[in-house]
Design goal:
elongated, binds arginine, MetI-like fold, alpha/beta, five-stranded mixed β-sheet, about 60% helix, D-Maltodextrin-Binding Protein, domain 2
């Protein structure tokens, strides 16, 4: 009895320490919260010439006239500019929760948005247009022809709102403009609503503009700032007025449009894509391995604890262990990720960076699966082993440590190996919050090259190589361990 309570206390202390230590240990990464020496810009870099990815001297950079404006603001404030690229519909929550300080993303200051954030003066005006495949141009002379059509628009944008108002239209809303263009090219949608300045960058032999225009009214872009941050708002307006009076904004638009226009015409093959963007994928591999390795390490720790809970003599702990396993296994990891990344941030102000949120989600998730694997292993060891150990005078803990666990470990090693392989693959989900892993890099390359297949085939090959090497290594370890059996 004495032993059990000591065990329990040790266990609980460990859990408390762990929950306290993990976030602070990981906090050394980018925390994304506002720092006085930094200006964190939130943007959705799929919107050339406003903001877009471009390879400059072999390195991926985010450029565009919004970025040029952001640089001027940062320079006027005397701080360093940090850019966070995310989905357009993630920008408002990111600003409200303090993950970013400022949003410059070709954003129109609508009444709805003004309820949650403040806007600067406007700095650019544009018009809505309808992108179609060239062969369909004459099909859409007016807006009326869009009724009951399959159309596309960017998620969270005013174009999405326009699309929603077209009677009977089947609207596909996606995160990135390039995905919408891909849908148009592959005939999944027949028309897309975008801004004229942006559409210009996508027009080619295949994609053109329909004569129909949903909205003759011009819409403007403004800079988003957290409500009540008047100091920053005034500084931003100050910079904008200066740029306007110096005619700088027009100049920035021209420069950005030139950068946008000089994209590669010839489509590289898969080897050329890989070679050209190898540094992207290399960064991705680094982050995928970091995510998976830390996910596995913390996952094993959580798994061991939960497993002990599930097999504990105290009913409460058993109940907690079971509840944990059932809840985590019964909900999608993507949902868990959203709760940890957005939920905790908007509700409790706990701002994890993408890396932190990713590691926490992976650990929590794999912890549940590993706990079950460990339990199966321990229960699979013949009861006689424990009885024999105890009758030799070993305590419960010693019997566990020296007799049961080594046998259990050997038995479940293949299952643990499978779990590791799974984590490497599942970590790709973390890319949706902007974690720059292999999957994310593949999307970036897709956005730059306008290729739908090669960037992902390369990602698939890399994931396969990683998991293949890992299972070979684990197979070796297994053979080594079973060799000791035969001795
Ligand atoms: N002006 C439109 C809006 O405010 C679209 C902006 C999209 N911006 C972007 N970076 N993708 O809804």
């Amino acid at each position: 009895m004495k032993l059990i309570s000591r065990y329990t206390i040790m266990l609980l202390t460990f859990v408390v320490l762990l929950t306290a230590a993990v976030p602070s240990a990981l906090a050394s990464g980018t925390t994304g919260t506002s720092d006085s020496k930094k200006l964190v810009l939130g943007t959705s870099a799929d919107f050339a010439p406003y903001e877009f990815h471009k390879v400059i001297d072999g390195k991926d950079e985010i450029v565009g006239f919004d970025i040029a404006i952001a640089k001027e603001i940062a320079a006027d404030l005397g701080v360093e500019l940090v850019i966070e690229d995310m989905g357009f519909d993630g920008l408002l929550p990111a600003l409200q929760s303090g993950r970013v300080d400022i949003v410059i993303s070709g954003m129109t200051p609508t009444e709805d948005r003004k309820k949650s954030i403040d806007f600067s003066n406007t700095y650019y005006k544009s018009k809505q247009v309808i992108m179609v495949r060239n062969e369909d141009k004459d099909k859409y002379p007016t807006m009326a022809e869009l009724e009951n059509e399959k159309i596309g628009a960017q998620k969270g944008s005013i174009q999405e709102t326009i699309g929603q108002k077209i009677p009977g239209a089947k609207l596909t809303s996606l995160d990135k403009i390039s995905d919408i263009v891909l849908q148009l090219q592959t005939k999944r949608i027949n028309a897309a609503i975008v801004e004229d300045t942006v559409a210009a960058g996508y027009l080619d032999d295949m994609i053109g503009l329909a004569p129909a225009v949903p909205d003759e009214e011009q819409v403007a872009a403004a800079i988003g700032i957290r409500k009540g941050n008047t100091e920053l708002l005034n500084a931003v307006n100050g910079t904008l007025e200066r740029l306007k009076s110096e005619n700088k904004i027009d100049q920035m638009v021209t420069e950005a449009s030139q950068l946008m226009a000089d994209r590669e015409v010839k489509s590289p093959n898969i080897f050329e894509v890989f070679w050209q963007y190898k540094s992207f994928y290399a960064t991705g591999v680094g982050y995928t391995l970091l995510l998976s390795a830390l996910g596995v390490i913390f996952g094993v720790i959580i798994g061991l604890i939960i497993c002990m809970f599930r097999m504990h003599d105290m009913a409460v702990l058993r109940w907690i262990g079971t509840a944990y396993v059932e809840v985590i296994r019964g909900t999608p990891m993507l949902v868990q990720l959203m709760i940890i990344y957005y939920g905790l941030s908007l509700t409790f102000g706990i701002n994890f960076s993408a890396l932190q949120a990713g590691i926490i989600t992976l650990s929590i998730n794999s912890g549940a699966y590993l706990a079950e694997i460990f339990r199966a292993g321990i229960q699979g060891v013949d009861r006689g082993q424990l009885e024999a150990a105890r009758s030799l005078g070993m305590g419960r803990a010693a019997a566990m440590r020296f007799i049961i666990l080594p046998q259990a470990f050997k038995a479940v090693l293949p299952a643990i190996g499978n779990e590791f392989v799974t984590i490497i693959k599942e970590s790709s989900i973390i890319s949706v919050i902007g974690m720059v892993d292999i999957m994310y890099q593949a999307s970036v390359v897709k956005n730059i090259t306008y290729q739908g297949m090669n960037p992902f085939l390369i990602a698939a090959a890399i994931y396969f190589v990683l998991t293949f090497i890992l299972s070979k290594l684990l197979g070796r370890l297994e053979r080594k361990l079973s060799a000791s059996d035969r001795r």
